[in-house]
């Protein structure tokens, strides 16, 4: 009875993409560990860009530093 | 000083129901483990139906499969 | 299909107490929100005292500050 | 930069199976959302059977109820 | 590659304050443990007041009990 | 009443370093948001290297790929 939590930045992820994540993770747990899909939970959290930090900066500012040549 | 996180699907849970969850969990931790309510945190997360998967499907689609005779 | 995570300090919690927490939380979610126990997950994490901070100190040191008259 | 947390019961999962979970989830996020593996974190938590509840019971007791004819 | 999750009540936290939290936590992990900022994630969750309980009550009600002389 | 969870790889972190993390995060929340230390929780989780993935690999294998000239 696995519980999987996927946190991603909120950037226009579609319902179809979410369904694909849910199906893919559930299939993976069945294949690798034999877990039953009926008791496999997948919870997706979209996190606003200003709430996700990397490199000591909010994501959008961090990305700008990577674009610099 | 317990920390309890309750994740449920977002389906019209009322403020009164949330208060009942907070009180119920806090009372339980006091009764079973003697934990002080003053340092017991309860955080409720409502998760959109499209963000919760079970059986390899988003919740709403999964429920449809259960209704089939 | 709720998911509940209970974090408590590791201080000799017994199997019976854990069972009481699992049953209590599951019953609460059924009573308040009508959630089915068959799809209610409860995960308990015991956290070592040195890994839990409050008041800017590890729990054990914090408790000593409270004992001071 | 996704963060994925996989919680499973502690029941003899091997290092190879863990590697397969890490690779599978990372590949999935690349395929579905185009996320870079270099900033995709996967954290696996194995949870002791007595710490995981379903149906209002610790997992092992719950499974016994399912075996009854 | 640390992952830090900060949960706070939703009460008008500004973008600048969020940036200060992200920078502060990332710097701390570098200073104390030598962790690289490039692989340090910080995720902030603002939680609605009605979804956060302490003392067996939602935060706002709890605060009223503290104001009583 | 913030709740902060710090996840790091298990690689010989000392009690003093943990205390420094707890103090640093609690001070930061007080300075930036005026949060009271008495209701600020910090929970540290050390994660075994085989349970943390990045780049589609467990941490130790991933690090080997970085060492290659």
Automatic annotation (TrEMBL), chains A, B, C, D, E, F:
Pfam families, per database record: Tautomerase
Enzyme class at the top of the EC tree: isomerase
Active site: residue positions: 2 (proton acceptor)
Ranges where the 4-oxalocrotonate tautomerase-like domain occurs: 2-60
InterPro entries attached to this UniProt entry: 4-OT, 4-OT-like_dom, Tautomerase/MIF_sf
UniProt key word Isomerase: yes
Keyword annotations from UniProtKB, A to Z: Isomerase
Domain of life: Bacteria
EC number, UniProt record: 5.3.2.-
GO molecular function terms listed in the Swiss-Prot or TrEMBL record: isomerase activity
Protein family per UniProt: Belongs to the 4-oxalocrotonate tautomerase family.
Official protein name in the record: Tautomerase
